[in-house]
Amino acid sequence: MNIDPQREQAKKNEIHDSLSTNEVSRVEKMKARIDCLQKLRKRSDDALQANRQEVYEEFQRKKTNPIRQERKREAEKLLAKQEAQIRGENYERKRFWDYSAESVEKWEKKQEKKAKKANTGFTDFNQVAHKKYKKQINELRPDLVAYDEQKIATTLTTIENGKVVYIDTESSFYRDANSLQYASVDNVPSAQAVDRLVTDVNKQIAQRERFSRRKKVDDDNEITYINNRNRRFNEKIGRFYDKYTMEIRGNLERGTAL
Predict the structure, then answer these.
(1) Domain boundary residue among 54, 78, 112?
(2) Where is the stretch described as Disordered (predicted)?
């Protein structure tokens, strides 16, 4: 049997070419994986560096003294005012150039509202009650959806002159002083309204306890006074002299005094 050397060489070359192609594709895949791994490592390093920078900035913000920052702003404001005076400019007018008319109007309304809500001191209980009432009204958030549903369910609607008019035939929604619907058993508040009322009452109780100036008296303590005035006098004396008379009082109570 004769073997053709050319055919044999061609087969060897074909096998070598196929092996070379597989090797090249494998090398290319390996390079792509290495590139992807390097990109992932770079992203991880960038994220770690960014986190460290944010932590450092937050630490610097907490470390900054607010009093120093306020003094710095005041110094910058004073410097800008002096520079404006040197140039012959109106500092207040120039400062308002940075604000729009809408923002200035909003700021003035906010300051006016704040001035109205400011505590001007106690005059009488009527003023305190009125102020508390206004505060509760401002905090009131009515349920408009439930309001509209109740109005539609209890009134009739007609159109007059192109406008929708609600007519309350049974005086159950638009009630006047002569209506007897206030005592109706059908008017039951919702669970959300009850919870809101309970929360508001608990909030008022907590505020009274926090702002009350009346000091609580411990009933377990020894009574060494005959009235409240004498109690306050004893407390004032005790703040200054108890540390000196503690040993003498202890000896008198034990009966070991000389």
Answers:
(1) 112
(2) 1-24
